[in-house]
Design brief:
two-stranded antiparallel ribbon, SNase_OB-fold_sf, signal, eight-stranded mixed beta sheet, Staphylococal_nuclease_OB-fold, plasmid, Nuclease
Length: about 210
Protein backbone atom coordinates (compact mmCIF):
# COMPACT_ATOMS: atom_id res chain seq x y z
CA UNK A 1 0.00 0.00 0.00
CA UNK A 2 1.32 3.41 -0.88
CA UNK A 3 2.40 5.78 1.88
CA UNK A 4 -0.22 8.32 0.80
CA UNK A 5 -2.98 5.71 1.02
CA UNK A 6 -1.88 4.75 4.54
CA UNK A 7 -1.85 8.44 5.43
CA UNK A 8 -5.46 8.97 4.41
CA UNK A 9 -6.67 5.81 6.15
CA UNK A 10 -4.97 6.53 9.46
CA UNK A 11 -6.09 10.14 9.61
CA UNK A 12 -9.67 9.11 9.00
CA UNK A 13 -9.50 6.70 11.95
CA UNK A 14 -7.70 9.06 14.31
CA UNK A 15 -9.51 10.82 17.15
CA UNK A 16 -9.68 14.53 16.53
CA UNK A 17 -8.21 15.27 19.94
CA UNK A 18 -4.85 13.80 18.91
CA UNK A 19 -4.46 16.53 16.33
CA UNK A 20 -5.11 19.44 18.66
CA UNK A 21 -2.73 22.35 18.15
CA UNK A 22 -2.95 25.85 19.51
CA UNK A 23 -1.98 28.06 16.57
CA UNK A 24 -0.66 31.51 17.33
CA UNK A 25 0.80 34.30 15.26
CA UNK A 26 4.15 32.67 15.95
CA UNK A 27 3.08 29.36 14.40
CA UNK A 28 1.37 29.73 11.01
CA UNK A 29 -1.28 27.24 9.96
CA UNK A 30 0.50 26.64 6.68
CA UNK A 31 3.71 27.50 4.88
CA UNK A 32 4.06 26.89 1.16
CA UNK A 33 6.65 27.45 -1.55
CA UNK A 34 10.10 26.57 -2.87
CA UNK A 35 12.80 25.53 -0.44
CA UNK A 36 16.57 25.30 -0.06
CA UNK A 37 17.55 22.03 1.63
CA UNK A 38 19.88 22.48 4.62
CA UNK A 39 20.32 18.84 5.63
CA UNK A 40 18.35 15.62 5.65
CA UNK A 41 15.65 16.95 7.98
CA UNK A 42 15.61 20.73 7.55
CA UNK A 43 14.99 23.20 4.76
CA UNK A 44 14.58 26.93 4.39
CA UNK A 45 11.72 28.53 2.50
CA UNK A 46 13.34 30.77 -0.08
CA UNK A 47 11.13 33.87 0.15
CA UNK A 48 10.54 34.03 3.89
CA UNK A 49 13.88 32.52 5.01
CA UNK A 50 11.87 30.42 7.46
CA UNK A 51 13.63 27.26 8.63
CA UNK A 52 11.43 24.17 8.92
CA UNK A 53 12.33 20.79 10.42
CA UNK A 54 10.31 17.68 9.61
CA UNK A 55 8.28 16.44 12.57
CA UNK A 56 8.76 12.88 13.80
CA UNK A 57 11.85 12.32 11.68
CA UNK A 58 15.63 12.35 12.00
CA UNK A 59 18.34 11.71 9.40
CA UNK A 60 22.05 10.89 9.64
CA UNK A 61 24.39 13.81 10.25
CA UNK A 62 25.97 15.23 7.10
CA UNK A 63 29.44 14.06 8.17
CA UNK A 64 28.37 10.47 8.84
CA UNK A 65 29.43 7.53 6.68
CA UNK A 66 27.99 4.03 6.46
CA UNK A 67 29.40 0.70 5.32
CA UNK A 68 27.39 -1.86 3.36
CA UNK A 69 29.02 -5.08 2.19
CA UNK A 70 32.45 -3.54 2.52
CA UNK A 71 31.47 -0.43 0.55
CA UNK A 72 31.70 2.89 2.42
CA UNK A 73 29.19 5.55 1.43
CA UNK A 74 28.34 9.07 2.70
CA UNK A 75 25.03 8.32 4.39
CA UNK A 76 24.55 11.87 5.68
CA UNK A 77 25.11 13.40 2.25
CA UNK A 78 22.82 10.79 0.71
CA UNK A 79 20.00 11.79 3.07
CA UNK A 80 20.45 15.43 2.09
CA UNK A 81 20.64 14.58 -1.63
CA UNK A 82 17.45 12.55 -1.31
CA UNK A 83 15.63 15.57 0.14
CA UNK A 84 17.01 17.83 -2.60
CA UNK A 85 15.78 15.49 -5.33
CA UNK A 86 12.33 15.28 -3.72
CA UNK A 87 11.91 19.05 -3.44
CA UNK A 88 13.92 20.47 -6.35
CA UNK A 89 11.70 22.61 -8.55
CA UNK A 90 8.65 21.72 -6.44
CA UNK A 91 6.48 23.66 -4.05
CA UNK A 92 6.64 22.23 -0.54
CA UNK A 93 3.49 22.43 1.57
CA UNK A 94 3.94 22.29 5.35
CA UNK A 95 1.50 22.12 8.25
CA UNK A 96 3.41 23.42 11.30
CA UNK A 97 2.72 21.89 14.71
CA UNK A 98 4.98 24.13 16.79
CA UNK A 99 8.55 25.33 17.22
CA UNK A 100 11.63 23.55 18.53
CA UNK A 101 14.17 24.81 21.07
CA UNK A 102 15.92 26.75 18.29
CA UNK A 103 12.63 28.50 17.36
CA UNK A 104 12.51 26.71 14.01
CA UNK A 105 9.13 25.46 12.84
CA UNK A 106 8.38 21.76 13.23
CA UNK A 107 6.00 20.59 10.53
CA UNK A 108 4.52 17.77 8.51
CA UNK A 109 5.55 18.56 4.94
CA UNK A 110 4.44 17.34 1.56
CA UNK A 111 5.25 17.61 -2.11
CA UNK A 112 1.91 16.99 -3.74
CA UNK A 113 0.53 14.04 -1.76
CA UNK A 114 3.97 12.71 -0.83
CA UNK A 115 4.69 12.90 2.89
CA UNK A 116 8.42 13.65 2.92
CA UNK A 117 9.20 12.19 6.34
CA UNK A 118 7.11 9.05 5.87
CA UNK A 119 8.58 8.36 2.44
CA UNK A 120 12.14 8.88 3.67
CA UNK A 121 11.57 6.47 6.55
CA UNK A 122 9.95 3.87 4.28
CA UNK A 123 12.94 4.02 1.92
CA UNK A 124 15.53 3.71 4.68
CA UNK A 125 16.80 7.28 4.35
CA UNK A 126 16.25 8.20 8.00
CA UNK A 127 14.63 7.31 11.30
CA UNK A 128 11.29 7.67 13.05
CA UNK A 129 12.25 9.95 15.93
CA UNK A 130 10.76 12.53 18.24
CA UNK A 131 12.56 14.88 20.60
CA UNK A 132 11.17 15.45 24.11
CA UNK A 133 7.88 17.36 24.14
CA UNK A 134 7.33 16.71 20.43
CA UNK A 135 4.44 14.47 19.30
CA UNK A 136 5.10 10.93 18.14
CA UNK A 137 3.74 9.56 14.88
CA UNK A 138 2.95 5.89 15.44
CA UNK A 139 2.76 5.13 11.72
CA UNK A 140 6.34 6.32 11.24
CA UNK A 141 7.61 3.62 13.61
CA UNK A 142 5.64 1.02 11.66
CA UNK A 143 7.25 2.21 8.42
CA UNK A 144 10.67 2.09 10.07
CA UNK A 145 10.20 -1.50 11.21
CA UNK A 146 9.36 -2.55 7.65
CA UNK A 147 12.37 -0.71 6.19
CA UNK A 148 14.64 -2.25 8.83
CA UNK A 149 13.32 -5.74 8.09
CA UNK A 150 14.01 -5.28 4.39
CA UNK A 151 17.49 -3.85 4.99
CA UNK A 152 16.80 -0.63 3.11
CA UNK A 153 19.30 2.24 3.16
CA UNK A 154 20.56 2.98 6.66
CA UNK A 155 19.47 -0.51 7.76
CA UNK A 156 21.97 -2.11 5.37
CA UNK A 157 24.79 -0.77 7.57
CA UNK A 158 24.63 -2.62 10.91
CA UNK A 159 27.38 -0.54 12.52
CA UNK A 160 25.86 2.85 11.66
CA UNK A 161 25.29 4.98 14.76
CA UNK A 162 21.98 6.83 14.86
CA UNK A 163 22.48 10.60 14.77
CA UNK A 164 21.39 11.21 18.36
CA UNK A 165 24.24 8.92 19.50
CA UNK A 166 26.73 10.24 16.95
CA UNK A 167 26.63 13.80 18.29
CA UNK A 168 29.46 15.05 20.49
CA UNK A 169 26.73 16.10 22.92
CA UNK A 170 24.21 13.29 22.34
CA UNK A 171 20.50 13.84 22.61
CA UNK A 172 18.83 11.52 25.15
CA UNK A 173 17.29 8.57 23.35
CA UNK A 174 13.57 9.38 23.46
CA UNK A 175 12.66 7.12 20.55
CA UNK A 176 9.88 4.60 20.96
CA UNK A 177 11.18 1.78 18.80
CA UNK A 178 11.31 -0.54 21.80
CA UNK A 179 8.07 0.48 23.48
CA UNK A 180 4.55 1.45 22.62
CA UNK A 181 3.92 5.21 22.94
CA UNK A 182 0.88 6.37 24.85
CA UNK A 183 -2.01 6.90 22.49
CA UNK A 184 -2.74 10.38 23.73
CA UNK A 185 0.84 11.45 22.94
CA UNK A 186 0.82 10.08 19.41
CA UNK A 187 -0.25 11.29 16.00
CA UNK A 188 -1.27 9.24 12.96
CA UNK A 189 0.43 9.61 9.62
CA UNK A 190 -0.64 13.12 8.54
CA UNK A 191 -2.88 13.73 5.55
CA UNK A 192 -1.49 15.87 2.71
CA UNK A 193 -2.31 19.55 3.05
CA UNK A 194 -3.37 21.71 0.14
CA UNK A 195 -2.66 25.40 -0.47
CA UNK A 196 -5.41 27.38 1.24
CA UNK A 197 -5.95 30.65 -0.56
CA UNK A 198 -8.51 31.67 2.05
CA UNK A 199 -5.92 31.95 4.81
CA UNK A 200 -4.82 35.41 5.82
CA UNK A 201 -1.19 36.51 5.71
CA UNK A 202 -0.95 36.05 9.48
CA UNK A 203 -2.09 32.44 9.13
CA UNK A 204 -0.17 31.28 6.07
CA UNK A 205 3.38 32.06 5.13
CA UNK A 206 5.45 30.68 2.34
CA UNK A 207 8.16 30.92 -0.25
Amino acid sequence: MKVTAISMMLLALAPTGSLGQAFTSDVPRQIYGRVQVVDGTTFEFIKTRQLVRLAGYEAPRLVQSASTGGVTWPVGQVSRAWMILRTLGQNVNCAPIGRDSNKNLIAHCFVGETNLAATAIAEGIGYAFNYPDEPQVLAYFDLERKARGLGFGIWSSPDLSPPWLYNVLPVPDERSGGRTPAAEESLPLPLPVTPDTALSLTQAQGG
